[in-house]
Amino acid sequence: MITSEEIKNRLWDGANELRGSMDASRYKDYMLGLMFYKFLSDKTLATFKGMYTKDEISESDLITAFEDAMRSNGDLLEASFQKLLGYYVLPQYLYQKWIKDINNGDFEVQKVIDSLNYFERSISASPDADDFKNLFSGSTLDLTDTALGSNLNERSKNIKALILLFADLDMIALQKGDVLGDAYEYLIGQFAMESGKKAGEFYTPRQVSEIMAQIAAKTSNIRSIYDPTVGSGSLLLTVKKHLTREIQEALTYYGQEKNTATYNLARMNLLLHEVKPNKMTIKNGDTLSHDWPEDPSRPNEGVLFDAVVMNPPYSAKNWNRAGLKVSDPRFVVAGVLPPDSKGDFAFLLHGLFHLGQTGTMTIVLPHGVLFRGAAEGEIRKRLLEKNYIDTVIGLPSNLFTNTGIPVVILVLKKNRQLGEPILIIDASNQFIKVGKQNVLQEKDIAKIVDTYVNRSEEKGYSHLADRQEIIENEYNLNIPRYIETIDNEIAHDVDGHLLGGIPQHNINNLTVIQSITPDLLQAALQPLRPNYVKLNCEIAELSDKILNDPRLVNLSAKLAQQAQAYINKYWPQIITINDQDKIHDLMEAMLAEIKTLLTNFNHIDIYDGYQIIAEIWQNALLHDSEIIALSDFYTAGRSRVPNMITKGTGDKKREVQDGFIGSIVPNELIATELYAEELAKIEHNKNQIQMLEGELSELIEASKEEDSAEYEALYESLKKNDDDEPLDAFDNKKLKEELKNTPKDSEQYKLLKKADKLISEKASLSKKVKAVELALKDEIQERIINLTDQEIDSLMYKKWFANTTTLLSELIEKPIKAELKILQMLNERYQDTLTSIDDEIKQLEDELQAMMQELVVTE
């Protein structure tokens, strides 16, 4: 029982260990290629087993039966494979044969090369041959490349290690619930981060893919999808994830990719995500140089798709090497060719040409497409006049690994109502920093998509720009022209600084406090003069009154009650989930409902609540529900797995088992909830050890001070460095000798005895703590498999939802606390008037003058 998270970590750790100094963008081709061949081999064997027997059979016996069947009835068997799969791997070329050769010491790299080459020859007659053609070509998987090792022995060693990385993975079992596909996508993403600038060739960051895909998936009656710069296929697959199972099964996928290795990656990725060969058409070619796909019967009309998604190379230079003219059907709508120095609009126009009349297109481009002039300005004007641009979404800078520039998602449609405004969203400030990258949180993605769906306006965030507004801006779509960034800085008031007092208009802007507890605020203010007030109590006192006011407390309690009912509704659905395919649907239902629940409460940010639930899923539920679906809740709760840790470094680095950990119930949680008394005793003893260490440290420091009693008694017992300088520890052997040779009735003996006793007590207590901790660790590992149903309920509820109701109910207080902080700032700002400051200065000057007069000069 292995989860997608465990597979991801294991494979990525293996990749880092095995690739050495090889460039990540190159190594990915080897790793992902061999991983895919393992899938093809497992799929072939599983299909043969289904045809051969329903009984349990060992893998070696199954391969023997496969070999016998191919010898006796090969043609019929091959036809069956072609019908069921569209491909097959011959018995002698199975991945399992490589593993057997490795174990027997008979491995040769040439056998791997022969296997990959024969696979492509074996499917050449298949109607799905294009999906596999050159999939393992030498240009993609060159196993003679010296980057894999400077000589044959080194290459053989490294290739064997990579083959063994996937040896025990059952790719068919892992394909269920998209575990295998998710792991493949994860590896692509990790390689992208390692590859830096090269990543843009094959990967779109997940958060950008999510926005584009969720918008594209809103298209009704979606039957086909096209990505003209398909990369690894992640955009197509992200759209797939947001469609119902019924639509997924009928959907056809089209894509084109210029880079051959990336084109191969895309085909593997789609097949691993259970996209059937007859439902995918991926082409290796230059999207712009020659239009594709084409319909020979309609040479001037593009093949149309319900959804078009794309993340093209940004501002591609010299894109028009084919010498295309404006008469190319793709560019006729623009009336002018995009500049050869920047291919952004060339890609956009290509995608638009293939967009169906009722379809949706999403494309991510650099911000410059919104405002650049010349030919690009003319194209933008034409698109706006044709009413094709539906939505503009400004994103933060530094989202991509290959560029730090800010990007924009454009949504285009051909069936927009005449006069329908363009939705402009400025999400450029909605991100968190993760390492060097800016990252959109789940709540940021949800807010963008919801704003798109609802066509809603929010000051400083979104705006519906009508035709007249766009004309007045000369067809320039630069976001700051339409959305003014909200300046949260409160302007200074000159009269307030001169005469004191908080301006009344600043008090009026405390809308949440004014709405919930206006009387408390009013009672805390004292008129100073017209339009100015001052606080007549401490801000801490007012905060305490407001936050403990029954109106606010009742509101928080109401939200907590509804949050508890929400959890109670989904708890039984989570613990009884038995289908991995339903996990995503359950997560989406919970996320949608929390937004609905929170809209019943004024002033709170529903997306903060959304993030709370999203993080529960990310941090625990996705992993745990997967394990539950593979067995059942209580079986999973009583399951444990080896706790593998890494020991050693370099050549001595190795994985060793350090006991067991719960599959879903954390050992630490069992300890805190079921062994609290034992932990308290351990903590008490650790505190005692710290006290003893403190006393020892004091004694050591005193021993270093000359002329002290401690120096006389203990200095010789201190450890010394090579320069005979005292260290911060006693030499126990010397201490014992000094104690033995010192008169018992002397002061020195008492100090030596004190040091010896402290050391002895510390050692004894440390040994005791270590033994108790080890025993408790063993007991907890045994307790896992003996947990009662009630204990599992309690522990898992604590793990998933321990503080959820509290976190959600605190959303009520959040805007109140923000306004109280503003009030405190205003009070401090206007507390000292110019007059009071002048008076203070004069007082200080008078005091200084008086002090100077008291000074007496002496010779």
From TrEMBL:
Q: Name one GO biological process term.
A: methylation
Q: What is its EC number?
A: 2.1.1.72
Give coiled-coil spans as residue ranges. 675-721, 827-854
**Residue ranges of the DNA methylase adenine-specific domain?**
176-488
Q: Which Pfam families match?
A: HsdM_N (PF12161), N6_Mtase (PF02384)
Q: Where is the N6 adenine-specific DNA methyltransferase N-terminal domain?
A: 7-164
Top EC class for this record: transferase
Catalytic reaction equation(s): a 2'-deoxyadenosine in DNA + S-adenosyl-L-methionine = an N(6)-methyl-2'-deoxyadenosine in DNA + S-adenosyl-L-homocysteine + H(+)
Q: Which PROSITE patterns match?
A: N6_MTASE
Tell me its family: Belongs to the N(4)/N(6)-methyltransferase family.
**Listed PANTHER family:** SITE-SPECIFIC DNA-METHYLTRANSFERASE (ADENINE-SPECIFIC), SLR6095 PROTEIN
- What is the official name of this protein in its record? site-specific DNA-methyltransferase (adenine-specific)
Taxonomic classification: Bacteria, Pseudomonadati, Pseudomonadota, Gammaproteobacteria, Orbales
